[in-house]
Amino acid sequence: MHEDIIEKLYREYTVHGFISEDHIFDVLEENGISLFDVEYICDHLLSKGVIIRDDTLTDDEEDEYDRSNVDYEAVFSEVLEIDDTFTDFIEYIRGIKSPQHREWMNLMPQVKLNNPYARNRIFEMYMKVALRIALVHAKRYHLSLDETIQNAMMGLYVSIDKYETACQENFASYFPLWVRQYIMRDAPTLNPLVYFPTHVKDKLFSIYDNMEDYFENIDDRTEPGIELFQSIATKLECSIEEARRLFDYLAPYESIEELLGNEENELLFSDNGVGYENMIALAEKNFDKEGLYKKLSLLTCREQEVLKFRYGIGLNHECTLDEIGQKFNITRERVRQIEAKAMRKIRRSYGIKEDDKD
After folding, report:
1. Contact partners, residue 157, CB within 8 Å, separation at least 6
2. Coil, helix or strand for 73?
3. pTM higher than the cut 0.85
4. 266: helix, coil or strand?
5. Which of 91, 96, 341, 342 suits 18 as a labelling partner, its CA being 20 to 30 A distant?
6. What are phi and psi of 97, to 5 degrees?
7. Under 8 Å CB-to-CB from 119, ≥6 apart: which residues?
8. Judging by beta carbons within 10 Å of its beta carbon (0-12, 13-18, 19+), is residue 110 exposed, middle or buried?
9. DSSP states of 194-246 as a string?
10. Helices (H), the chain
């Protein structure tokens, strides 16, 4: 009888990914098994790697992040102040039970055995930490909060797969590294019109603090003093010349519309009487549409459609990642991946080599 009960409970575990203690008691009672045999049955289930969940635990028990006195309610409130569309997302995180003591150590081996409950539980119980990291980076580097949160959650998810159970490092200390990596990998600099290799990008982000501290005390942001370059050179252990070059990389760009709207630039941008309409007509005349569509023909149908919507090719306007995702019923990240793959194909067709990526 005991073996039949154990096999029954094990089959249920393989379906749900866990078994609650209350359910074990119910099964024993239904089959007339003494409650004194609970320990025997639980020991056998645990030896098979079964996760037995105690639903009676309260949310008062917290992991080391919670014990660090982080005020997550303040984090939630600040996120909602920036973007109130996260209301449902925040409410969902609020309802997640806090990690129990060493809970991740019991769950991680089951993750490696493809237990869906174990994977989902580890992901959910660290979501608020990833959210906090995303908020900090979005504020510090002036990033889009929604994309930063999305990248943070992707980093958390990937960290679960990458973590080795034989590793001595605590998972709570391990996963933030992946969260930050995914955030910074796609984070635009102050000059998003220019592509920077990862090693240059790391340097640029590392000097944000130097620039903010310096410009807080002066009025003219366009004329930095030698003190700024010296602080950058000291921090990066580089020459003053390289510090100047990195600063120039971060110089904010101005749109043509803004420059044309400034009377001081009137002479600089004079077209010598050529009307705006004539300029547009000339541009359209010289535009190599045949060459463009020839390059697009190298792509798959979906890649062609994504690029057309993304850059407004043949349309009156460009579409956002969200708008394209809704058209194809895919996530914005998937749209970004399709766009990147398509652009790589086009670059290769022009003989442009991709930079080595980390």
Report:
1. 123
2. helix
3. no
4. coil
5. 91
6. -65, 135
7. 111, 160
8. buried
9. S---HHHHHHHHHTHHHHHHHHTT-S-TTS--HHHHHHHHHHHT--HHHHHHH
10. 2-16, 21-30, 38-47, 72-82, 87-94, 103-112, 116-125, 127-141, 145-162, 171-186, 198-206, 208-215, 226-236, 240-249, 256-260, 276-286, 289-296, 301-311, 321-328, 332-349
Q: Which residue, chain included where needed, has tokens 């007509």?
A: 281
How does pLDDT run along the chain (358 residues), one tens digit per residue?
Answer: 677 777 777 777 777 666 776 777 777 777 777 656 666 777 777 676 677 665 544 444 444 445 445 788 999 999 999 999 999 999 999 998 888 777 888 888 888 888 888 899 999 999 999 999 999 989 888 889 999 999 999 999 999 999 987 776 788 888 998 998 899 888 877 776 777 777 777 788 888 777 777 666 555 555 667 888 888 888 888 898 888 888 887 766 666 666 666 666 555 555 554 554 554 455 455 555 556 667 777 888 888 888 888 888 777 788 899 999 898 888 888 898 998 888 888 777 766 555 544 4
Of 22, 85, 86, 27, nearest to 54 by C-alpha is: 22
Q: Which amino acid is at 216?
A: E
- Using DSSP, state whether 154 is helix, strand or coil: helix
Rg (CA), the chain: 28
**Locate tokens 């979501």: which residue?**
127
CB atoms within 10 A of CB 113: 8
Amino acid at 12: E
Q: Are 324 and 309 in contact (CB under 8 A)?
A: yes
Angle at which helices 301-311 and 289-296 cross, to 10°: 140
Quote the CA–CA distance of 252 and 249 in Å, as a whole number. 9
Nearest to 16 by CA among 110, 104, 105: 110
